[in-house]
């Protein structure tokens, strides 16, 4: 029995799966129905240092998906939500990614 989901949410774990990002996204897309969505939400630093050779901010994450998963499409992108934490400038990035039918 192969269970499919309408939504798979990857929330604030990008930095933990970064080295296996392609496989994690592949598995997430495999788990959703034909009209399902993968929602990726993550906090980013304005001046990101860790992992920026793989993804640099929300725009870099979007570009990674476009390059590695051309058969998927970005349904919604939000990358301008601001959070202030001490002296560091942070923002939330949110991508809703669906399968192309």
Provide an overview of this structure.
This protein is α+β, with helices and mostly antiparallel strands and about 100 residues long. It has a single domain (about 5-100), classed as Rossmann fold (3-Layer(aba) Sandwich). It is about 25% helix and about 45% strand. It has helices at about 15, 20-30, 55-70; strands at about 5-10, 30-45, 70-85, 90-100. The chain has a four-stranded mixed β-sheet. The mean pLDDT is about 85.
Alpha-carbon distance between the two ends:
23 Å
Strand order of the largest sheet: 1-2-4-3
Major sheet size, sense and barrel closure: 4 strands, mixed
Provide the residue-averaged pLDDT.
Answer: 87
The CATH homologous superfamily is termed Vaccinia Virus protein VP39
What is the count of β-strands? 4
How many independent structural domains? 1
CATH topology: Rossmann fold
Helix content: 25-40%
Percent of residues in beta strands: over 45%
Find the structural class using helix and strand composition: alpha+beta
- The Rg value, from CA coordinates, equals 14 Å
Shape: globular
What is the CATH class? Alpha Beta
Ranges where pLDDT stays below 50 over 5 or more residues in a row are none
Number of helix segments?
Answer: 3
Overall CATH architecture:
3-Layer(aba) Sandwich
Q: Can you write the helix and strand succession as a string? A: EHHEHEE
